[in-house]
């Protein structure tokens, strides 16, 4: 790396060994990395364990956008956020854990809000299938048992 | 653990490769998220969505219930006041309650939305109908008429549809004395029963208050017939009894409070400043001018609130809460005055805030007044409504 980079560029290494060159202002949006930089225990490359290249790229994309558009209208940022978090189940899960481990507050907020929106107004069965990996036949059996349970005469 | 086992079983049963892939994907399900993250997500849900969430799995049930019981922030609901309106269809002639009720929410920007379309009121085959509905902070207190014509109180949270019947109220006493061949039955009879429901912010407790006017009636029973021995109203035989129920884990009715002053005209009172206020008339004299009596929920004492100046407190008056202050609507010939007490308990702070004078036909006013009272019957700040009933579940 050239010396000009050293001042405000950091290198992040994902769990599967891929390296990303990121401006420091963007990297320190993660509180965990910020602490490392402030304590000066960060050498040239900062390892980011538990996060693979794919997810790390997404996180960096998010942070970059938020860093650039600080001056921009908040509504622009909001549409970007809502499009960004609109992903599949698995990516969403990985992103949430990554944001939690790296302590990126804005990303965590946006993701949690998104999941909450997905849960809102759904039925029990829907939530079970979508979020907890239940199978349809399990639901049907449990429903059957539940109906028997409910038919008992209380009081 | 059980869920895992079921998942493995599911995989064995389904040899379809696509299904298998699905299963692997679900290995990283939302259930495996750290607890603080699950809480973070669930805390963003509105209260009504927490009901299905509770039924999803055990850990989510625990999260949702812990969210319920989280101590709520009083400042928060002052910032975001909202009004919940529960509209219930009129009772039909058989005194049955139709089961479809609609719960609307109106927020501070006058937007409204339907929260739930079919709220089932807690019903029990012992209960004839709901006589009165009181409300405080989004919780409803239903005064139900039982089929033996006594009242039973039910606390109901319409957002989560949780309910709790309170234990039976202490009933009137009956003593029997025998003299020669006559039997004298000393019966206590209710002249009226009025209720109040309020929240005490200093102890974070809800309290239900019953004020009962009891009159002694003595029956003389001979071998042939039973007839009332004395039944005229007599202040010697009349007493007013106050029972208080505190909603807590070991709640019961306590009845050691005297109410010497007056009798409330109607059950619905206004809850301001940790005290329930009723419009009361002089004892036994219902058409006289009224006074406002407050019942402090923390020290459980009755006090008289001074009337507004130049306001004839009579039949057209109603109490309500306006902007956190006690207010009186005075309704007379095509005019509604709304008096607001800026400082609670200070006579000089009564101000005539709003005067509505319109040359509208009387019927419109009648309806307007009805709407006000309907809305008052269910006034809430939503963050309060997240609190569930602090009573053990049945």
From TrEMBL, chain A:
Highest rank taxon of the organism: Eukaryota
Protein name per Swiss-Prot or TrEMBL: SKP1-like protein 4
From TrEMBL, chain B:
Source taxon at top rank: Eukaryota
Protein name according to UniProt: F-box protein
UniProt organism field: Camellia lanceoleosa
């Amino acid at each position: 790396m050239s010396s000009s980079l050293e001042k405000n560029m950091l290198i992040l290494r994902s769990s599967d060994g891929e390296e990303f060159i990121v401006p420091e202002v963007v990297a320190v949006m993660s509180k965990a990395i910020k602490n490392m930089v402030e304590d000066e225990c960060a050498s040239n490359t900062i390892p980011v364990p538990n996060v693979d290249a794919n997810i790390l790229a997404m996180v960096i994309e998010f942070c970059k956008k938020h860093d650039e558009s600080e001056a921009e209208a908040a509504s622009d940022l909001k549409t970007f956020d809502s499009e960004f978090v609109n992903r599949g189940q698995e990516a969403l899960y990985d992103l949430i854990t990554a944001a939690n481990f790296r302590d990126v507050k804005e990303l965590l907020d946006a993701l949690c809000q998104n999941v909450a929106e997905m849960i809102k107004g759904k039925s029990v069965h829907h939530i079970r299938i979508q979020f907890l990996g239940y199978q349809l036949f399990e639901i049907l059996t449990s429903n059957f048992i539940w109906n028997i349970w409910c038919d008992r005469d209380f009081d | 653990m059980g869920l895992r086992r079921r998942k493995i079983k599911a995989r064995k049963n389904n040899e379809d490769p696509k299904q298998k892939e699905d299963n692997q994907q679900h290995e990283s399900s939302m259930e495996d998220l750290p607890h603080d993250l699950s809480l973070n997500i669930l805390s963003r849900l509105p209260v009504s969505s927490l009901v299905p969430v509770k039924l999803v799995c055990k850990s989510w049930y625990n999260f949702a219930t812990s969210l319920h019981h989280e101590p709520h922030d009083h400042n928060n609901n002052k910032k975001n006041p909202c009004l919940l309106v529960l509209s219930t269809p009129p009772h039909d002639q058989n005194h049955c309650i139709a089961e479809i009720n609609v719960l609307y929410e109106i927020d501070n920007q006058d937007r409204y939305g339907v929260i739930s379309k079919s709220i089932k009121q807690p019903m029990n085959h012992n209960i004839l109908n709901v006589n009165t509905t009181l409300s405080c902070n989004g919780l409803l207190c239903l005064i139900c008429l039982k089929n033996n014509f006594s009242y039973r109180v039910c606390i109901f949270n319409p957002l989560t549809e949780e309910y709790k019947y309170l234990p039976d109220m202490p009933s009137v006493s009956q003593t029997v004395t025998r003299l020669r061949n006559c039997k004298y039955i000393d019966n206590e009879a209710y002249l009226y029963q009025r209720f109040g429901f309020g929240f005490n912010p200093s102890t974070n407790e809800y309290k239900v208050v019953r004020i009962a006017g009891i009159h002694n009636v003595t029956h003389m029973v001979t071998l042939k017939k039973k007839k009332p021995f004395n039944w005229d109203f007599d202040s010697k035989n009349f007493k007013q009894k106050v029972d208080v129920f505190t909603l807590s884990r070991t709640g019961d009715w306590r009845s050691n409070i005297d109410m010497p002053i007056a009798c409330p005209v109607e059950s619905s009172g206004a809850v301001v400043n940790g005290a329930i206020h009723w419009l009361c008339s002089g004892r036994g004299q219902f058409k006289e001018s009224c006074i406002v009596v407050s019942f402090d929920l923390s020290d459980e004492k009755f006090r008289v609130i001074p009337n507004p100046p130049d306001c004839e407190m009579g039949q057209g008056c109603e109490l309500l809460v306006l902007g956190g202050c006690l207010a009186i609507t005075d309704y007379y010939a095509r005019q509604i005055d709304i008096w607001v007490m800026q400082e609670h308990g200070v006579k000089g702070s009564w101000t005539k805030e709003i005067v509505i004078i319109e040359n509208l036909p009387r019927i419109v006013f009648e309806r307007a007044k009805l709407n006000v009272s309907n809305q008052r019957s269910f006034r809430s700040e939503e963050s309060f409504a997240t609190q569930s009933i602090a009573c053990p579940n049945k």
